[in-house]
Every structure is written in C-alpha cells, then in structure tokens.
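Field log, afternoon session.

UNIT: design team B
ACTIVITY: writing a sequence onto a fixed backbone
BACKBONE:
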C-alpha cells in the first residue's frame, strides 16, 4: 500500500501504548493485593479474596482482598487514631502533603493511565489526557484550600472519619474527587473502590506511602458490595460520601437514617442534550460524541437524551449517523480508538436488553457498522430515534453508548421534556443565541449545565445533582463544606424532654360572660382553613389552663398545603429585592405587635416577661437578618483552566417542609422559615407541637405583609405524624426537622423515596438565641442548590 493511498483512505493503523511497566507492576503483586490499612498492605482478616478481570479480554487481572467486618474495623480504628493529629497540623503542613501527592501523580502519570485503561477498559487517550491530569489538578486545588482553611473556613471544623465509596466508571478520578478535599480539610479516610476497578486505588496507596503521607490518614479496603455496606453501617464513621447508582444511594440513605452521619450522594442521571435550530450543527454533533460515547457512555452525567428542534432534526440525525460511522471501537491501549470495552459482561447484557426494549416500544435503531474486537465486552455506538418521552430508554439510565433522540418545537416544550425525569444531574444546551441558551439553562432541573459544550469538569467548579441524582457538591468551595461541620453545632447537647402536656383542669362556672371561643385554623394558600378531619387539640398553660385550640392537621391538609406551595412558584423567580422588602414588612408588622406575641409566649411556656420579650426581639432581628441577606446571598464566577467561565448560581430548592422545634415557639419558627423564603423557597411549616399558638398568631402578620399566597403554609398537629407525611411526599423537595432523635430518624429514612434533602438535629438542642448556631450562612447554604452553568467563549 502506498503512502498516497493512506491519505486517500484516511484509515488508521494500530498505535498501541506500551503496557510493559503496568504488567510488571501487576506481576509484582501476582500473589494478590491486600488492603491498605494504617500505612501498610495487609491480607484480609478472613483470608478471603476475589478476582478482578480485564474488560477487553475477560482474563483475570489480579487477586484482591475481600474486606470483611474485621478489616473495616481495623481501617476505621486506624483512621480514628490518625485523624485528630492530622487535623491539628497547620494548614500549610497538610497543603504540602497534598502538593506531594499531586506531584507524585504527575511523575507516575503514564503508569496510572495504563493501569486504569487495562483495569477499566476505557481508551488510553481518556485516562492519559483527561482522568489522570484532572486527578492531579484536584490535589493541587485542594492543597490550596488546606493552606487557607484557617481564614476561609474559620467557623468550621473537620467532620472526622470519612467513609468513601467510589464507582467503576472513573476509578482514579473519583478517588481524587473524594480523597483530596477530605484530606485537605483535616479528615481521615477509608476508601472502598469498586470491586471491578480497584487497581489504581491500590497503586495510589503505594504512591501516597512513598510520598510520606502519615499512617492511618488514608486507608483503602477492597471488596464487593457487602464491604461497602459494612462501611456505611459502621458506628464510628462520621460521614459517608458515595458515588454510584440511585438504587444503592437510596439504601444508604435509609441505613444511615438517625445515625448522625453526614451524607453526600452523587447518583445516576438521564441528562438532556438540547439542540436548537440556530445551533452550530457540526459542533453539536461533536458534542454528542463527547456526551454519550465518551467512556462508552458509562458516565453518570452522559448526555443520553437528545432533544432536537424539529426544523433541523433530519439534518442533525443524518450528520450524526455519518459521524457515528467514523468512530472506532477497539483495544483500550490503542491510542487511535474512540471507544473501548464495557466494564463487564453483566453490564453488556443490561445494555442489550434495554436497547431491545426500546425498539419494542417503537424506537428506530441505528448502530454504526463497524468491526468490534473479538472477545471481551464491546458494544457499538448506538442511536435510538423517534423515542417517546415515556419509553423506558428515555426514562432509565442505560449506562452504555446509547443515545436516545426525540424532537421539540418551542423552547418551552424543550424545557418541559428536559425536566421530564426523576433525575437532575446535568444538561447541555446548544444555541448560537446566548440569551436563549442562558434562559433555558436557568430553567433546567440540573446541578450542572453546559452551554455549547458537554462533560467539562474542573476541581474549582462544584459538581452534583438534584432530585434522584443525589445531593451535595464535589469540587470548589461548595465541595469543601461537605467535609466540614459548623463549630457552633459541635457542642450541642441532647434536647431535654419537654414536660408532658398538662391536662385541662375543670373550671367552676359563674355568671360572668365567658370569653368568645376561638379555634386557630390552619393557614394554607394564603387563607385560614379548617382542618380536613375537623379535629382540634387544646393548648394549655403550664398550670393546665386552656388558652386556646388549634386544628389537628392530617394527610389531606399536608396535600393541600403542598399544592398551594407548588402553585406559588413565582416566588422563586421574584426579584431578590422584592423578597427582601417583604421580609422587612413582616418584621415591621411583628414589631407592632411585639407585646401581644410576648404575652402569648409567656402564657404558653411560662417564660418570664423578660425572656418572652427577648425572644420576640430576637425574632424581629432575625427577620431583618434574612431580609438583608435576601439580595446579598449571591453566587460566584469560577474561572476553570479553559477559555470560559462557570457561573455558580444558588437556586431555591423548591417546596420545603419544616418541623419546628418544640422550644422557642416564635424564634424557632422564624429561624427556620425565614432563610428558606429569603432564598425563594416555599414552605409548609409544622409549628412547635406543645406551643403552636405563636405560629398561628403569626399568620395574621403574614396576611398583612404582602406575602404571596402559598409561600408560607402552616399546618398544626403532631410533629412526628405530619413529618412522616412530608418526608414521604414526592412533591416535597426538602425537609428540615428539629425535635426528637426519633423524629430525625423517621425523616431521614422516609426521605429516601425521592431522595429529598434533609436538615435534622438528631435530638440535639439548638440555642436559638445564639446567632452563631441559629442564624446566617449555615442555614442559607442548606436552603439552596448551587447550579454551575459552564459558558465557554472564543473560537
């Protein structure tokens, strides 16, 4: 064949990366890999091992230790022993350790990249050019946060001992995403890598040891699903950080309920890839290649749902099919391939079954007619067009190289289709009209949105989802807070038991006129409403005197309140100035009735007049605080190492349930409701169960303060019973619950249904008069999701 013919055909020959060093490294561990605990490799306490396989060939790669309860116990004990000393190191000392780890990664980058490609099956070009450099970037970036931790996070301390469970699709990069911030901020780690892909984690352990990382700070326990379950259930772990499937994430939420563990979940996705008719079509086609065929589509944020405007749909699909035909599937170490191997036969079988199901539901199948390697687990680039929004391939995560396509006519329809999913991880918007792209980006239910780009990542830019894609952020300042806890909450003590509700004492009648009977109603949709069940409960003074009655709310009342809150969605889009002004009005109107509210607190709780007045004054001040923050709690602009910016935009979570603490009936209510409405949320609040009259008096303040109907809804009754209803409600996006330990456990367990965000106190009492513990940024941060919108610019 002549050179000219190669230029005519533009065909590729093989360009294999050498694997000699990687195979030598594996050969040195031919007897098997142990766990890395307390700075040394140790065999499983049980002596059990399991094999890991090479996806491209199906051959055994290595023998790994299978972690059991004793191994997890040993790793946790080592981490606990090391953590306090590690946290006490000056930030500069920790920064130097992370810098050393970053440099070690760079010095051994090629070995890491080759081992990763062999172990995972992804192309060497991806591990070499993306995964490993970005992993080093994470350690460099978080070395910086360690250096300035004392000033930037002065009111926070490390969480403590952290259990981290990572997936098989980005084994080394996920390690860096989790280990770097945890270590930087003073925590100790037990990492459980995926059973399919543990090798680069063990290689990293060797490098970390050589770099002088102190013993016990980093521990790695390999194993299968049961090993991860042991980590999740361990009583001496302070936080779990998990990346993986939504199904497993839901189980973890249930199993950690009531444990007091901090939890970060980065779960599945079904990300929309929206192409408008003014988009650069060829650019968008290349975007699809990166969105769904990168890493064989085994990406949680893969742009797997193509939404193409009708006017260009035929042309777009024609060019996409032509581009698919040029993709190359081959051995992972071939530098000329676009796609490597599927992780395992079981995943390949799942992909094949879902594609078959999609075709049976009416989709049109197109697969690139290209040669696949013999042996191993390989699947061709696949497009399913004409997909209905309710088809299983449009709603379920396939986690393979399969794009599904549907069309839309208007931007509004595109937004509706894009948000028609239980997930909310990422999205891409393609349009040459930047105003249109940003308008759509703002309305998409996703934690990350790329404009005219896809699958951009950086250590400085937070990553994470909404809905059933999980909660929490990884990367940047947002991700640092996931590994810290407020100093003001550290010393909280268990809440003292509230006195039993007094029995109403009989009162002998006389000939004086009785007071006019009044039963406080519920407050739903801006109106007073009788409880559905038409039951009420008597509220008594500490001496047993009846001082009022409130409605006994039930499931239908909560349903009505949630519907009203949903209907008030305009509040989330109101200007921050408007929200601030209304909070000032509320404070002004409460101030005008301060004596009345103080008297009510005294009558219900028996507090002295001075203490009651102090609580009202604090409530007014707190309203002023959140009025002040309403137009000042703003996002930031990240500047990742590319030509472009990423806008970190705080967004209202949506409909939030609030179970108010039994104590501080007015101040506790306002301390939780005010930050939520200041940031644009709508609230369904359950007032203090023993002392609800402050809240039912308060709705008359709301009625005279221009608060739109449905923004604040108040349902009185049993805290635990109403919490159960709110926690299980799929249209409630978050739930804050302050009360008993039982209440916290119940809320966290039932919230797993739609993986709503929770804020609970685990039965620990908050001093609501203490501004450090009860006011400000630590509540505002939990009242929003941060959406990162990437905007590349230039040619």
């Amino acid at each position: 064949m002549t050179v000219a013919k190669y230029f005519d055909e533009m065909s590729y020959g093989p360009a294999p990366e050498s694997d000699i060093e990687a195979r030598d490294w594996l050969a040195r561990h031919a007897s098997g890999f142990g766990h890395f605990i307390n700075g040394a490799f140790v065999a499983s306490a049980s002596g059990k091992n399991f094999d890991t396989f090479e996806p491209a060939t199906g051959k055994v790669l290595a023998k790994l230790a299978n972690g059991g309860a004793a191994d997890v116990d040993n790793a946790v004990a080592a981490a606990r022993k090391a953590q306090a000393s590690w946290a006490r190191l000056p930030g500069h000392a920790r920064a130097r350790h992370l810098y050393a780890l970053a440099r070690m990664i760079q010095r051994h980058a090629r070995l890491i990249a080759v081992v990763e490609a062999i172990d995972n099956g992804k192309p060497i070009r991806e591990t070499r050019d993306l995964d490993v450099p970005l992993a080093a970037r994470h350690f460099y970036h978080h070395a910086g946060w360690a250096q300035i931790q004392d000033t930037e996070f002065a009111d926070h301390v490390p969480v403590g001992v952290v259990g981290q469970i990572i997936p098989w699709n980005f084994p080394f990069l996920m390690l860096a995403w989790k280990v770097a911030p945890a270590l930087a901020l003073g925590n100790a780690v037990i990492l459980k890598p995926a059973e399919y892909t543990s090798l680069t984690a063990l290689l990293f352990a060797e490098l970390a040891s050589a770099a002088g990382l102190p013993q016990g700070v980093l521990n790695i326990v390999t194993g299968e699903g049961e090993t991860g379950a042991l980590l999740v259930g361990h009583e001496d772990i302070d936080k779990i950080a998990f990346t993986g499937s939504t199904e497993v994430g839901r189980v973890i939420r249930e199993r950690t309920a009531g444990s007091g563990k901090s939890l970060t979940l980065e779960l599945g996705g079904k990300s929309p890839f929206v192409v408008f008719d003014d988009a650069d079509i060829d650019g968008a086609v290349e975007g699809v290649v990166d969105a769904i065929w990168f890493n064989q589509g085994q990406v949680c944020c893969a742009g797997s749902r193509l939404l193409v405007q009708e006017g260009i749909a035929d042309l777009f699909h024609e060019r996409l099919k032509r581009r698919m035909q040029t993709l190359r599937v081959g051995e992972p170490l071939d530098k000329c391939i676009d796609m490597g191997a599927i992780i395992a036969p079981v995943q390949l079988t799942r992909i094949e079954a879902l594609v078959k199901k999609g075709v049976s539901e009416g989709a049109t199948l197109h697969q690139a007619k290209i040669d696949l390697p013999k042996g191993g687990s390989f699947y061709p680039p696949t497009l399913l067009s004409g997909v209905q929004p309710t088809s299983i391939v449009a709603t379920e995560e396939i986690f393979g190289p399969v794009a599904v396509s549907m069309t839309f006519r208007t931007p509004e329809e595109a937004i509706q289709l894009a948000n028609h999913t239980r997930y909310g991880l990422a999205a891409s918007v393609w349009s040459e009209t930047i105003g249109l792209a940003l308008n759509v980006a703002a309305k998409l239910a996703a934690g990350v949105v790329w404009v005219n780009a896809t699958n951009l990542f950086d250590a400085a830019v937070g990553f994470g989802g909404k809905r059933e894609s999980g909660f929490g952020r990884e990367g940047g300042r947002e991700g640092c807070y996931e590994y810290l806890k407020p100093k003001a909450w550290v010393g909280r003590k268990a809440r003292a038991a509230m006195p039993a509700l007094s029995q109403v004492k009989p009162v002998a009648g006389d000939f004086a006129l009785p007071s006019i009977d009044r039963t406080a109603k519920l407050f739903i949709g801006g109106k007073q409403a009788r409880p559905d069940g038409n039951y009420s409960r008597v509220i008594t003074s500490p001496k047993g005197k009846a001082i009022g009655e409130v409605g006994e709310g039930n499931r239908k009342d909560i349903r009505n309140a949630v519907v009203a809150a949903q209907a008030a969605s305009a509040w989330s889009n109101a200007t921050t100035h408007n929200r601030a002004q209304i909070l000032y009005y509320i404070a002004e109107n409460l101030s005008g009735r301060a004596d009345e509210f103080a008297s009510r607190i005294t009558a219900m709780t028996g507090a002295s007049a001075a203490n009651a007045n102090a609580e009202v004054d604090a409530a007014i001040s707190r309203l002023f605080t959140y009025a002040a923050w309403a137009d000042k709690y703003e996002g930031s602009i990240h500047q990742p190492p590319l030509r472009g910016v990423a806008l970190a935009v705080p967004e209202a979570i949506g409909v939030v349930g609030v179970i108010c603490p039994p104590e501080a009936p007015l101040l506790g209510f306002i301390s939780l409701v005010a930050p939520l409405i200041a940031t644009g949320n709508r609230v369904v609040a359950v007032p203090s169960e023993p002392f609800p009259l402050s809240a039912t008096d308060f709705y008359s303040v709301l009625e005279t303060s221009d608060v739109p109907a449905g923004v604040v809804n108040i349902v009185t009754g049993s805290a635990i019973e109403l919490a159960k209803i709110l926690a299980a409600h799929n249209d409630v996006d978050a739930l804050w619950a302050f009360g008993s330990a039982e209440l916290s456990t119940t809320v966290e367990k039932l919230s797993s249904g739609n993986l709503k965000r929770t804020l609970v106190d685990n039965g620990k009492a908050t001093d609501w008069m203490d501004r450090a513990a009860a006011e400000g940024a630590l509540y505002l941060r939990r009242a929003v999701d941060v959406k990162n919108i990437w905007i590349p610019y230039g040619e």
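LOG NOTE: The chain has a mean pLDDT of 93.
NEXT ACTIVITY: expression trials, pending approval
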